[in-house]
Each structure stands twice: as C-alpha cells, then as structure tokens.
Amino acid sequence: MCSPGYLEKNPHIQHTEDMLKGTLLTLEVGEEWLSWQAWFRACNIEYKADAGPRMNINNYLLVIQSALNGQGLALGWENLVDDYLASGLLIKPVSTSVETTSQFLMLEPEQTARPKQGAEYFRKWLLSLI
To answer: Of the CATH numbers 3.40.190.10, 2.60.40.10, 1.25.40.10, 1.10.530.10, which one belongs to the domain with range 4-87?
Structure first.
C-alpha cells in the first residue's frame, strides 16, 4: 500500500512486479513479520534486495507513517490498516495480496483480580476480529 501522492509520482507501478522499482518501506525486526522477500516469493516474482531503493525501518507504526507521508510502498496487515484504506489516505497500488499463516496471540495471566477496563476493551476488540 502507499499514499495516493506516491502513486501519482510513480505511475509506472501498475503491476505487482513493478513494485520492485518502487521504494520499499522495509520493516526490520526479529519477529516473524512478512518480509518483502517473502511477499514477492508468494507472488512468484524473483526478489533482489539491490533491485531498487529501500528504506529500512524498525517499527511498524513508522512504516505506516512513512507510507502516509508518501515515502514508499508498505506491506499492510488488513486489520491494522483498514481505516486508512477506507478513508483513501492509503491505497493498494496493485490488487495482489498474500495470505500468511502468521498469527497474533493474546496471552492473559491467570488472576483473580479483575483486569483494567482498558485491557478488557482491547481484549473484546481483538476477539471481535475473529
């Protein structure tokens, strides 16, 4: 995904393979997040790390902010960016999407005390997504 302004400045991005020529906003973390290399592999496209410009970022929120600022293309997880896509602040430059087997886990300690109200709201919201 990217900002509409980024796509206006990069009209050559029309197909999935064209994204290799765009600035890829790359999340660099130790967790098992979907990488650009894995995304292109899932699309049956050869990925070369030196094929085009990259911006390495170590925080997902900063990746999204960079995309909003028109700095490049970002991988977005639907539940985390749906509002941006619905508002038009971010768009999908191509229709290709990849489904992963990655999971988010919610761990709750066993306790007798009632959780804080904010934590309970967050828990209910997470459960509403499944």
So the answer is: 3.40.190.10
The pTM of the full predicted model, rounded to 2 decimals, is 0.77
> What integer pLDDT is reported at residue 7 of this predicted model?
96
**Tokens 């602040």 -> residue:** 89
Enumerate residue ranges in the chain where pLDDT < 70.
Answer: 30-32, 101-106, 112-114
SS3 113: coil
The alpha carbon of residue 88 and the mean position of all alpha carbons in its chain are separated, in whole angstroms, by 16
Query: What are the start-end ranges of the E strands in the chain?
Result: 24-27, 54-57
